[in-house]
Amino acid sequence: MRVLVVEDHTELADSITRVLRREGLAVDTAYDGRTALDLILEVDYDVVILDRDLPDVHGDEVCAELAVEGVRTKVLMLTASASIADRVEGLGLGADDYLAKPFAWAELLARTRALGRRAHPVRRPELVCGPLRLDPARRTASHGGSQLPLTTKEFAVLEYLLDADGRVVSAGELLAEVWDAAADPGTTTVKATINRLRAKLVDATVLRTVPGKGYRI
User: Fold this and answer.
1) Which of the two residues, 183 and 200, has the higher pLDDT score?
2) Rounded distance, CA 143 to CA 135, Å?
3) What does pTM read for this prediction?
4) Burial category of 66 from C-beta neighbours within 10 Å (exposed 0-12, middle 13-18, buried 19 and up)
5) Domains in the chain, start-ordered, CATH in brackets?
6) Could you read off the pLDDT of 78-92 as tens digits, one per residue?
């Protein structure tokens, strides 16, 4: 899942980014509304976590601009105000969900994942290919009945490949969808992760390399 965090308080923005990345999400960060709009129009984000009270370009303006541009990214709006009137107004501006500060990390993560699922409404509850099974909600994966001890990034790669349903996925697509702007496109990050993932599968041949094109299951 690709997420953009928009928050002008850099310490909070960086903390949110770290927490979500630790949970396996691909996260970019913007500290102002203008940068956020530029990124949103360039990158296909699943979820934008948007502070409402941004200076310069206000969070309300960001929401309004997304509506004008026809961007369908889900928006989780953050605000210091917990009043019902503010919540109603924020949702009326186009936000999909609303979370008052201070918030619990577990709730922020749960709401972000829920919006991400809404961004992909046809997503299957369990991804299966023969003896290989992955449960996105429970964050578990197994192969031939054996649980796979995957890192968050290995899990995200396997989830993306299984969801592709046999389609060949290029390294560039994986880098764009599973990693974020912090990843160096000139590195062998994708190949190294694929190799580690193969080593943990009961039968490594289910994860195939298509020369010059990418990978598929």
Assistant:
1) 200
2) 12
3) 0.69
4) buried
5) 2-119 (3.40.50.2300), 127-216 (1.10.10.10)
6) 988 666 666 666 566
